[in-house]
Structures are given as C-alpha cells and as structure tokens.
Amino acid sequence: MSRLLLLLLTGLVSLVIAACGDDEEEPAPSANEPAATATAEADACSPEQLELTTDGTLTVGTDKPAYPPYFEDDDPANGKGFESAVAYALADKLGIEQVEWTVVPFNASFAPGPKDFDFDINQISISPKRAERVDFSDPYYTAPQAVIALKDSGAASATSLADVADAKIGVQVGTTSLDAAMESIKPSEQPQVFNDSNDTVRALKTKRVDAIVVDLPTAFYLTAAEVPEAKIVGQFEAPGGDDWGVVLEKDSTLTPCVNQAIGELEDSGELQQITDKWMGGQAGAPELQ
Question: Among 42, 89, 110, 237, which residue's Cβ finds the most Cβ atoms within 10 Å?
C-alpha cells in the first residue's frame, strides 16, 4: 500500500469516527415540547387523576343557611343560585358527574388543617392572611360592599360614607366587611361584630345597630326578603377589591385543576352568563364616596 493511500484511509476513518461522535450529542429541542407539556398538565387534571376526598365524587362545602342569590331554597344541591351554579359548572369542567354537599361554617372553611371537602364555595374573600392557611382558586367574582339601614333610621338618608361614620354599624365575624367598614367608612366607634348572618340581621331588625355592612348581592336579598323594612343606603368598593375564590386545603393538588376550570369558564363566557343570570341586580344601588 502506498504512503499516499495509507494517509487517505487514515483521514477517512477519522471522519467516520467524528461523525459517529456527533450522533451522540444532545439533540436540539423539539418544537413540539410546549405542546407535550400542555398535554401532560391536562392529563394531570383528567378525572381519573384527581385526588378527591371520595373517589369519583366532588365534595363541596358551604355554610347553612345557604341564602339567595347564591343558593335557592336553602338547597345547594338543586343547582339554582349563583354559587350552586358555579360549583356544578366547575364539576362539569373537571369531568366529575357526582357532587356531594357538606355543611361547613364560614370561619371553619379557611381555618388551618385538613379538610373534609374538595373545595368550599361561600362568598369567601381572598386575603393574604387566609391564604397562609388554605389555598384559594383564582377569583370567580368581585363584589362591592353595601350599607343597609332601616328606612326610618337616620342612617338611611346618608349620601356619602362620611354620613355613616357616626352610625352604630354591625358586621358578621370573619368577613371582609369589617375591614371594608373600618378602612372606607372610618366609623367613630368600633363596629359590633356578630357570630353569623342571622345574628347580624337580627341586630338590625331590633335596632341594636343603625346599619349593617354586607356584600352587595346579599344586601339585595336581605332588603327584598329578610328585612323589607330596610333599604340599601349605597354600595362602595372594598379596599383593594373584594375577590371571591373557592377554598381548598393548603397545597391541594386540586388547586391548579380548579384554576384551569375557572379559566375555561371565563374564556367560554359561561361564567359571565352565570353571573348575569343570578347577580344581575347590582346596578340599582347608589354609590357612596
């Protein structure tokens, strides 16, 4: 073999070895990787993958009594009322046909510790302090606050938040209405705090307080059905907004799936349709500045 031929063969072998080495280098990222990631996330939220309190059943908590416009006939399971309709729409998006309701007192829903529900829906405002103890979904509603007073009360003629500052104000314990009253109305005396909505309404009826502060949808219901001798003095925005979210156990694996379901309801317009159907009366209350 000639020297020249030997050199040519040696060079050819080197090229072959180098080519083989290139084949073992890390492959370039595929354009399909984002789609694959989205598919994996969707698979994690498929019905058979959801970690539920009871297999195959979505357990939903709320307080009792369950008032309109959030629930009708004190029966969350009938699908009527704003929050009942939202809960069933979420169940549908999660692919779960069986829904069971359980009674959970308002304050217990966001107390720390294990939960015996998958999520709780009960006009619960999202706040940083509560979020230290539980998970919140993305908001499904943003509520203004409202002042209610008996029609023969001096507070009934108020046209501004300052006009209500000297009134005796009542609120339900654990609600954001207390913070809203303190920050926006700036009352001259500490509001009276009551254990539940029944006690709060009773205090208004018996004139233990001049006015109560609740979210606006509740105000419409109370003045229409529970306390027709009262009126909505006006509505006002809660500081920072009053976003409502469903409550889940802290670090629940269900939280991202519920958020995905809420996003789908928003994108499709279904959430807005539910809101318009059950919460459409808000424009009738004057605004207090």
Answer: 110
Which segments of the chain belong to CATH 3.40.190.10?
Answer: 48-142+243-284, 145-236
pLDDT along the chain (289 residues), means of 10: 40 41 48 53 86 97 92 96 97 98 96 97 94 98 95 96 97 90 95 94 97 93 93 88 94 98 98 90 77
- Residue 123, judged by CB atoms within 10 A of its CB (0-12, 13-18, 19+), counts as buried
CA nearest to 100, candidates 61, 138, 64: 61
Q: Which residues pair with 244 in a beta bridge?
A: 125, 141
DSSP string across 67-120: -TTTSSTT-GGG--SHHHHHHHHHHHHHT--EEEEEE--HHHHTSSS--SSSEE
Name the CATH superfamily for 145-236: Periplasmic binding protein-like II (3.40.190.10)
Relative orientation angle of helices 82-94 and 255-268, to the nearest 10 degrees: 110
> Which residue, 177, 265, 163, 158, is CA-closest to 219?
177
CATH of domain 48-142+243-284: 3.40.190.10
Q: Which helix (H) or strand (E) holds 274?
A: helix 270-278
Q: Are 236 and 179 in contact (CB under 8 A)?
A: no
